[in-house]
Amino acid sequence: MKIALIAHDAKKKLMQNFCIAYRGILGKHEIYATGTTGRQIEDVTNLQIHKFLAGHLGGGQQIAMQIEHNQIDLVIFLRDPLNPMSHEVNANNLLQLCDMHNIPLATNLATAELLIKSLDRGDMDFREMYKE
Q: How far apart are the first and last CA of the chain?
């Protein structure tokens, strides 16, 4: 499975800790991330991350294009709801694309943990039928 990881600045440390905790599961899959988030995850986990541009430079848009072309199976986007970003329109586009293409999406830690455990159990195998 191809997993996209995105985190607003205030959530980057939380994303690092999440990836440390679930390194064993994440290591079995292809991981994609916006640039800064990807580098920070690599630094603490030694996971191989396919990095796009930083979010504010268009990395979120690059991930959105991957979603549009059915090349992402799961998105974990830890958002800071109290401090919207100047490029928030792009974030809303990404969320809309996940809804349109039936891509499981977590925007908070609780849902991220549910999805990653579900992935490990094989509950996300339904995504394979969307690739045909």
A: 14
Type of residue at 73: D
Q: Round the average pLDDT of the chain to a whole number and report it.
A: 90
Q: How far apart are the C-alpha atoms of 36 and 12, rounded to whole Å?
A: 9
pTM of the model: 0.91
CA-only gyration radius of the chain, Å: 13
The CB density around residue 125, as the number of other CB atoms within 10 Å, is 11
In a domain, 130, yes or no: no
**CB-CB contact of 64 with 34 (8 Å):** no
> By residue range, what is the domain housing residue 103?
19-124
Asked whether residue 116 is assigned to any structural domain, the reply reads yes
- Could you give the count of Cα atoms lying within 13 Å of 49 in the half-sphere of its Cβ? 25
pLDDT in tens, 32-42: 999 999 999 99
